[in-house]
Amino acid sequence: MVSDMHASGPVLSYGDRRRSATLPEVDPIGWTEELLAVGGIDAALAFLNTRVEHRSSAIYRLAGSKLHLTHYFDASGNRPLAILEHIPLGDSFCQFALRDGSFYVEESRNDIRISRTPLPPVMSSLIASYVGFPMLSADSSFIGTLCHFDIVARSITSAEMDVQRRAAAILSTAMG
After folding, report:
1. Which of 46, 84, 113, 175 has the CA that lies 20 to 30 A from 70?
2. Which pLDDT score is estimated for 10?
3. What residues contact residue 105 under an 8 Å CB cut-off, 6+ apart?
């Protein structure tokens, strides 16, 4: 067991499973709103990351046909790879989240939906697992995505998908 400090408090790691040591069972949406109010988007994103198995969490802003990384949290404390900072929408997993209202793939290398859409080899080799949710402006235009991803296969429950979808709506408001 390893203990680290993150924006959401100490996090205990059991292998590659992380759970907060200081947060009792809370209303995740209320907690997201509270963290957003007192610590900003980065604090809310760090909290949302503790709720999933995925190592990395990000918010991408859509500008034209490109996604720009605006907020990033990595449970291992690493900075994002340069290749992930600016991505053409058509070369990203986020395109599916924007198209379908959400997108989840536990293991992208074995998923027929991914094999039918030519992603750059570097993207599909970097990201094995992805879950993403569109972020909308007040007039319902797409402004970006909230996503979690990892280099190994990860799962997420449908209940957590709902929490993350609702959190994306809250973060959308904060992003304007």
Report:
1. 113
2. 40
3. 93, 111, 113, 114, 129, 130, 131
Residue 21 has pLDDT above 80, yes or no: no
Contacts of 121 (CB under 8 A, 6+ apart): none
Is the domain spanning 27-175 CATH 3.30.450.40? The answer is yes
User: What is the separation, in whole angstroms, between the first and last Cα of the chain?
Assistant: 39
Tell me which amino acid residue 160 is. E
Which tokens belong to 131? Answer: 């879950």
Q: 């319902």: which residue's tokens? A: 140
Closest CA to 51 of 172, 167, 133: 167
What pTM did the predictor assign? Answer: 0.84
Position 87: which residue type?
I
Determine the Cα–Cα distance for residues 61 and 103; give it in Å rounded to an integer: 17
Within 10 angstroms of residue 68's Cβ, the number of other Cβ atoms is 14
Q: Which carries the bigger pLDDT value, residue 130 or residue 21?
A: 130
Q: Residue 143 class from Cβ within 10 Å (0-12 exposed, 13-18 middle, 19+ buried)?
A: buried
